[in-house]
UniProtKB/TrEMBL annotation:
Its EC number is 3.5.1.118. The lineage of its organism: Bacteria, Bacillati, Actinomycetota, Actinomycetes, Kitasatosporales. This is Gamma-glutamyl-hercynylcysteine sulfoxide hydrolase. GO terms for biological process: ergothioneine biosynthetic process. Keywords: Glutamine amidotransferase, Hydrolase. GO terms for molecular function: hydrolase activity, acting on carbon-nitrogen (but not peptide) bonds, in linear amides. It comes from Streptomyces luteolifulvus.
Amino acid sequence: MCRHLAYLGPEEPIGSILVRPPHSLYRQSWAPRRQRYGTVNADGFGVGWYAEGDPVPARYRRAGPIWADQSLADLARVVRSEAVLAAVRDATLSGADAEAAAAPYTAGPWLFSHNGAVKGWPGSLGPLVQTLPAVDLLSLEARNDSAFVWALLLARLRGGDQEGQALADTVLEVAEAAPGSRLNLLLTNGEAIAATAWGDTLWYLSRPGGGTVVASEPYDDDPHWQEVPDRTLLAASRTDVLLTPLKDPSDPLAPAPSAPSKEPRT
């Protein structure tokens, strides 16, 4: 479906995160190692990052494959940031939205990406339309499942919900309406990362000297990468990672969520 990555840590060129590692997100666009659905992520890409002193992120997106963009190499070489979110896309359904359908989506201080697919889209989420203000529906950036999930999440964020709670509630709402959906969501405000593992792979790395990477799959063979269990909410800062199990609403036998577990840095 796609691959995505978020980074918080010491300032460095975004290319050292997205391009330079041996199994970087750039390489995952044509040679992912752990992708369960699809094989090539050539239907667009995007990079979002934060500049010092500005809470509103910048964003660079294109409709084509990341390896075909001649401007990215210069951008990745000179742009430096302490917080980045990026994604390469394998479209579930073809459409005319092109660049607008490529993550990250953004509003205010947030960057968002969705790795997965909503089962039965668009009909399955029809009942959820009434939960959104009309202006939010008319303002959808693209006509795909990810953009609609973003609208559901953004409504919660604007309503004052904390990032992790908003992410978890959105996943559970969509999973109940469309059982069998894959909902690996990734969100950052430049100071923290929230993510869900729901139907696809998710890993994190606590980097020596500070810094956290959350990604669909490891970008190198560092043994400190940790896989996030399925049906889990991840909340991360530059120094800590917390994992909280999520209860699948379509499985009445699933255990109730337990207290978050704090993952020690190594």
